[in-house]
Amino acid sequence: MGAGRYAPSPSGELHVGNLRTAMLAWLFARSTGREFILRVEDLDTARTAAGAEEAQIRDLAAIGLTFDTVSPRQSERLPVYAEALSSLRDRGLLYECFCTRRDILDAPRAPHTPPGAYPGTCRHLSEAERAERRQHRPAAWRLATEHETVTVQDTLLGPVTGQVDDVVVQRNDGTPAYNLAVVVDDHLSGVDQVVRADDLAFSSPRQAHLRGLLYGPEAAAEVQYAHVPLVINGESQRLAKRDGAVTLSRLHDVGLSSERVRDLLLDSLRLPAGPLAGAVDGFDPAALPREPWVFEPPAGA
Ligand code: GLU
Question: Which intervals hold domain Glutamyl/glutaminyl-tRNA synthetase class Ib catalytic (predicted)?
Answer without folding.
Answer: 5-250
